[in-house]
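A favour, since you know our structure tokens better than I do. Could you add the entry underneath, on a fresh line?
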Amino acid sequence: MRIDIVTVLPDIFDSPLSASVLGVARGSGRLDLRVHDLRSWALPGVHKQVDDAPYGGGPGMVMRPEPFFDAVSTLMAEGAAARVILLSPRGIPLRQSLVEELAGEARLVLLCGRYEGVDERVRTIADLEVSVGDYVVTGGELPAMILVDAVTRLLPGVLGHENSTTEESFSWGLLEYPQYTRPASHAGLEVPEVLRSGDHAKIRLWRRLEAIRRTALVRPDLLVSAELTEEEREYADRCLEEGAGDRDPEGR
């Protein structure tokens, strides 16, 4: 997959997008990541202007449309068609289902806003506006990093185990079940016996029910659209009624 990022702060991407899984994905060629300085398409002049005062007055500066239009036009002429995404607090939420959809694209172009936002006309060249949460950050750079990370880890061959992305938070429409490793006992806290039993059927059941219980406790809103059997739905309802699951899946 190729991902192009257009930003006025290209340098801040260097370290985060070169480390760990992203660094491996780039080194293996599974991710072709290119960061472009928006000022390469700035207005003529020594100041390389990409923003201006808002019409109608108001605080701050608004990013002008011309640099974004020119950047997208240039990048689109370079090769494969791309899906253009504007990172914006006005966008649709970045949920796992959208991440999975974007991971199936051959190429993405991410546009990072800054200052008081972008000229409304920039939205006409974006196929999609995406938000990473109901809060405001200083620009689209950090949201772009989140999107790149979430998408890259779903690319074939990026993670070491084929099931690594299928048994984690949101992949079932639920939060992930609790994870444990050695030692079996620490500070008076024990690893659940079922996980040490070697009975894989019981372990799968325990994990599934724990995921439901944890979701009821932390994100009950997810249960509305989660794919649950009738029995699981009844269990989720009991968890909610009992204070979002004070008891474990075996009823203790």
User: Anything to note?
Assistant: The first helix runs from residue 20 to 28. The two ends are 48 Å apart (CA to CA). Helices lie at 20-28, 65-76, 96-103, 141-152, 200-218, 230-241. The beta strands are 2-7, 32-37, 51-52, 62-63, 83-93, 107-112, 128-131, 185-186, 189-190.
